[in-house]
Amino acid sequence: MDLLLWRHAEAVDGTPDHLRELTARGQKQAAKVAAWLDAHRPKRLKVLASPTIRTRQTAAAFTDTFEVVSALAPEHGIEGILAATGWPEGRGAVMVVGHQPALGSLAALLLAGHEADWTIKKGALWWFTNRVRNGETQTVLRCAVTPDLL
C-alpha cells in the first residue's frame, strides 16, 4: 500500500479555523505540488481531505474527485487517519490532505516506530509505502517533496 500525506498549503490567519482559505502563495504551493504529483502519481490513487476550506482547496489543485472525511479535521489525531486510509493492510494508494500536528506525528510513527513532534512543511507531500522483506513488514519513505524545491 502507498500512503501519501499532503499538508495543506499556506492559509490566511484568522477564525473560525475551518473557514481559513489559501493565500495566493498557498495556491501557488498547491499548484506546484499538484503538477509534480500528476506526473508521478501512483495508479488508483484515492484522495481524502479534511473538511476545512484550506485542505479542500489544496486537494482541488490536484483533482476535483476527493472525499471529505471528518476524521481528518485538525482536532483529530492519527487514529482517524489510519482508520480512514486502512494503512497498512489496505491496497492501492491513498492520499490524505490534512494538518499538523497529526501528519507529522504519523510520519514519526511510520518511520521511527513511535509518535513524535515532527513537522511537515506547509504544502509538502510525504510518500510512504510498505513492503515485506524476510517476513518483516517495513515502511519506506519513497519521497518528500516541498513546494519551494519544485
Structural notes for this entry:
With 150 residues, the chain is of the alpha/beta class. It has a single domain (2-149), classed as Rossmann fold (3-Layer(aba) Sandwich). The protein is 29% helix and 25% strand. The protein has four helices and six strands. A six-stranded mixed β-sheet has the order 3-2-4-1-5-6. β2, α2 and β3 form a beta-alpha-beta unit. The longest helix is centred in the N-terminal third of the chain and has 17 residues, at 24-40. The model has no long low-confidence stretch (mean pLDDT 96).
Could you outline the blueprint of secondary structure elements for this entry?
Blueprint: E1 2-7, H1 24-40, E2 45-49, H2 53-60, E3 67-68, H3 78-85, E4 93-98, H4 102-112, E5 125-133, E6 136-145
Parallel strand pairs: 1-4, 2-3, 2-4
Antiparallel strand pairs: 1-5, 5-6
Residue-averaged pLDDT, rounded? 96
Residue runs with pLDDT of under 50 for 5 or more positions: none
Number of domains: 1
Q: State the share of residues found in helices, binned by percent.
A: 25-40%
CATH class: Alpha Beta
| Rg computed from alpha carbons, rounded to a whole number of angstroms | 14 Å
Structural class, judged by helices and strands?
A: alpha/beta
- Report, as a whole number of angstroms, the end-to-end distance: 25 Å
Number of helices: 4
What is the count of β-strands?
6
Examine the secondary-structure arrangement and name the CATH architecture.
3-Layer(aba) Sandwich
**Major sheet: order of its strands?**
3-2-4-1-5-6
Q: SSE string, helix = H, strand = E? A: EHEHEHEHEE
Largest sheet: 6 strands, mixed
